[in-house]
Design a protein that fits this description.
The complex is a heterodimer of chains A (about 260) and B (about 500).
Chain A (H helix, E strand, L loop, with lengths): L4 H13 L14 E4 L2 E4 L6 H8 L22 E4 L2 E4 L10 E3 L3 H17 L14 H8 L16 E2 L5 E4 L8 H9 L5 E4 L7 E4 L26 E3 L12 H4 L6 H4 L2
Parallel strand pairs in A: 1-5
Antiparallel strand pairs in A: 1-2, 3-4, 3-5, 6-7, 7-10, 8-9
Chain B lengths: L28 E7 L5 E8 L4 H5 L8 H5 L7 H15 L7 H33 L10 H7 L1 H22 L8 E2 L2 E2 L5 H31 L1 H6 L6 E6 L11 E5 L5 E6 L8 E4 L8 E4 L3 H4 L2 E2 L2 H7 L6 H12 L11 H21 L18 E8 L2 E9 L5 E7 L1 H4 L1 H16 L6 H13 L16 E6 L5 E7 L5 E3 L2
Parallel strand pairs in B: 1-14, 5-10
Antiparallel strand pairs in B: 1-2, 3-4, 5-6, 6-7, 8-9, 11-12, 12-13, 14-15, 15-16
Classes of the chains: A alpha+beta (about 260), B alpha+beta (about 500).
């Protein structure tokens, strides 16, 4: 996908903004763009994703989180801005933009991205304790993903159960790097980092000599301990405590919980 | 040692049948029968192509995931695996006593499971054989035929099963593969609305279950000689019993008796099951052959399941089922208590017991309580045993200090019955197949014997009387004279 100079500068502006503000109290009449034909007000500096989220409109995404700067890696939030593809989490909202979001064309591409995520890891929802609370699963339901479509990779990924309170099951990692950001920006511990090369080699690593979580000062109260949108970073001995029917996405689909549970 | 008809004298001349490992859940059964020029049976083997991957791939998983993961062994009675694994993890967590709410919700879930599984087996799977005849027209010998010929019976079967599934849904969260039982307790109790909804129908379920007991009794009365002799053989047996000797399908000690009714062990702590049971292996089967250690692999095979439970217990703690048990034991001087088809009668008595148990539990206020979890002093090992619909189910795990499973051993009901099913099939083959030309109707006799045990195979579930079978007729010189297969759609094909 070719990126224009103006788009690069727009993305740079958006990164610098890192807006966390609540919905603006006053919105200038001309600070409005169109998302699937709907008027979305925004405050200067907000990205399309931020403005849409504040407005309560769902744009599918996995690696974006309102508390952290955009990562722009999962590409699930790809929208069409004035006819051109772009990541809504990195493109600044501007007056008069015409943004396509939940079109058949875009959802079809998102579904393919999801299918690739599913086959790259080992996502066994039937026995996964994150089932019902998992953004990947909920997004797949939202986008009507009925099968993985591609051959499964079945990568050999480790489980790190060394920490007394936290289990790490990298089988389910989608490389969103939210744990890296949370540990670095909020916890100030830099416990996680992305490393390795290649499709199956690149993964999240632990910053300790042994590579084990037990040999870090990671704590269950860390922001990074509760940031994972999928079932990698899990509090131990809590699995399946919430009955079916009361889990996050049992209550409403992910598209209907935009403000409350946006990961 | 080889059992009669287990291995022909000249195995080197026998045709080799390749077996693809398929999972226990969707596995299919295969019977191979070797006959000589005069159609005399020389070898009969029931193959349950069992690949026990779960014991391996559960290794390294966190212990709280086990009850949810291992239930995927089965789509028919996942609750049994769910509960057996939970019980094992209770023990590993040092939880000696669940909260009253947790124990009763689990018992309710289990009774729902017994009810739906037994209803499914009897009405959907076995009744076509019993109502139409073992060798009857294959086109009608299925649940659709039952719906056409006996709509009232079919309706009861469907609704009994549905009710059992509803009990499971309300206690486990889903009709199949729920998450209700967790190590140390349960994650939900019943709401007042759920309780009221179940109470609305439970009395009808008890009544229909009584009718079912009456129906199988009538079938025995009308076909006593055939039913009593069909696949009959002497066998030891094992089941759980309550401390007072009464039937308890959720918890108890192990009771075992030999074929003469002498007690081998009683109220034995199942946490040390390996002191009394060992598993033999045979070169021709992926499935192990459990046996009583005191009797050895040659003589120590045994039966589990409804027939053993109903005949071994001293009483059944619900009145209608206990009366039905007494009538069953007394029927024809006690002859049915040793008949392979007696399994069906015993199964219906248990279904009645399950319905009565659900009724009693629904009237117990503990099931809407809020105290769901108990704690204890952590152990390294956990063993959980439960009486699943098909028989005694053993789960055994070791968990390391990182909370990961490092060892798992599962002995499922169908495995306990492995030798018993093989013996029953051989008895039927000797009696019905010897010297005769093989027909679909005769092949079905083999299946009828297998179905009595309600084995956990896909052939006993969605194939509905269309179990894939392979039969080869081998001449004295080892050449295959004739062979025929019946595929999963029930089509018979002659190969030679």
């Amino acid at each position: 996908m070719k990126t224009s100079n103006s788009e690069v500068s727009v993305q740079a502006n958006a990164r610098e903004a890192r807006v966390k503000a609540d919905r603006p109290a006053e919105t200038k009449a001309n600070n409005i763009f169109q998302l699937d034909g709907e008027d979305i007000p925004f405050r200067p500096g907000q990205t399309i994703m931020q403005a849409a989220t504040h407005h309560g409109t769902y744009i599918p995404h996995l690696c974006w989180h309102p508390d952290f700067s955009a990562h722009g890696s999962c590409k699930l939030c790809t929208v069409k801005v004035n006819g051109r593809f772009g990541s809504s989490c990195t493109i600044a909202a501007q007056p008069g933009l015409d943004v396509e979001n939940r079109t058949a064309e875009l959802d079809d591409k998102r579904r393919t991205l999801l299918q690739m995520l599913f086959v790259e890891g080992n996502h066994f929802c039937p026995s996964c304790e994150k089932s019902g609370n998992c953004a990947l699963q909920a997004t797949a339901y939202e986008l009507n993903m009925m099968s993985p479509h591609f051959d499964m990779f079945y990568p050999d990924r480790p489980v790190d159960a060394s920490h007394p309170d936290i289990l790490l099951d990298f089988n389910r990692c989608i490389m969103c790097a939210l744990c890296v950001a949370a540990s670095r920006d909020v916890d100030g511990k830099n416990i996680f980092y992305m490393g390795g090369r290649g499709l199956l080699g690149r993964r999240v690593h632990i910053s300790s000599e042994s590579g084990k979580l037990a040999d870090t000062d990671f704590a269950v109260t860390d922001r990074a301990a509760s940031i994972c949108p999928v079932g990698v970073i899990l509090p131990k001995r809590k699995g399946f405590a919430v009955p079916i029917g009361q889990r996050t996405y049992d209550l409403a689909p992910i598209s209907k919980q935009v403000r409350d549970t946006t990961p | 040692m080889s059992f009669e008809l287990e291995t022909a004298i000249s195995p080197e001349r026998l045709r080799r049948v390749a077996i693809d490992p398929v999972s226990r859940v969707e596995g299919h059964g295969k019977v191979t029968i070797l006959l000589d020029d005069d159609n005399q049976v020389h070898q009969v083997r029931l193959h349950i192509v069992e690949f026990r991957g779960f014991e391996k791939f559960i290794q390294g998983r966190p212990y709280w995931e086990v009850p949810v993961m291992v239930q995927r062994l089965c789509g028919i009675c996942p609750v049994s695996h769910h509960l057996a694994a939970s019980k094992a993890m209770d023990m590993m967590l040092g939880v000696k006593q669940l909260t009253p709410t947790a124990e009763k919700i689990r018992r309710l879930m289990h009774a729902g499971q017994i009810l739906q599984s037994h209803a499914l087996h009897f009405f959907h799977l076995a009744s076509p054989d019993l109502l139409f005849g073992f060798g009857s027209d294959v086109a009608a010998r299925n649940i659709v035929g039952i719906i056409a010929a006996h709509p009232e019976i079919a309706k009861k079967g469907v609704l009994l099963r549905k009710f059992g599934q509803e009990v499971i849904r309300m206690t486990a969260g889903k009709r199949v593969h729920g998450t209700g039982s967790i190590p140390g307790g349960v994650n939900k109790s019943l709401s007042a609305d759920e309780r009221a909804e179940l109470l609305k129908d439970i009395y009808q379920m008890v009544a229909w279950s009584r009718d079912a007991v009456g129906m199988i009794r009538q079938l025995f009365e009308h076909n006593l000689a055939e039913y009593n002799d069909f696949g009959r053989f002497r066998s030891s047996g094992m089941c759980l019993v309550r401390a007072d000797g009464a039937m308890d399908l959720y918890h108890g000690g192990l009771r075992a008796r030999d074929a003469d009714g002498h007690t081998l062990f009683d109220h034995f702590d199942y946490a040390r099951y390996w002191e009394v049971i060992a598993e033999d292996v045979k070169p021709w089967s992926y499935m192990k052959f459990p046996f009583f250690k005191s009797m050895g692999p040659d003589d120590g095979s045994y039966r589990v399941g409804p027939l053993t439970r109903v005949t071994h217990c001293d009483s059944i703690p619900t009145p209608l089922a206990d009366k039905a048990r007494e009538e069953f034991i007394a029927f024809d001087g006690g002859s049915v208590a040793g008949a392979t088809l007696g399994y069906h009668w015993a199964r219906m008595i248990e279904m009645l017991h399950a319905a009565e148990s659900i009724k009693d539990l629904l009237h117990d206020d503990d099931i809407i309580g809020g105290d769901l979890m108990a704690t204890g002093q952590r152990q390294e090992r956990g063993v959980g045993v439960i009486e699943a619909p098909r028989g005694t189910l053993i789960h055994h795990y070791r968990v390391d200090e990182s909370d990961q499973v490092i060892r798992a051993n599962l002995i499922v009901s169908t495995t306990h019955n492995n030798q018993a099913m093989n013996t029953a099939v051989r008895e039927v083959a000797k009696k019905y197949l010897n010297g005769r030309e093989i027909t679909e109707g005769l092949l079905n006799h083999i299946e009828v014997a297998i179905r009595a045990f309600d084995p956990c195979l896909s052939c006993a579930t969605h194939a509905l009387g269309q179990m894939p079978l392979e039969v080869a007729i081998v001449g004295a010189d080892g050449t295959v004279i004739d062979e025929a297969t019946r595929d999963h759609r029930g089509l018979i094909r002659a190969l030679a």
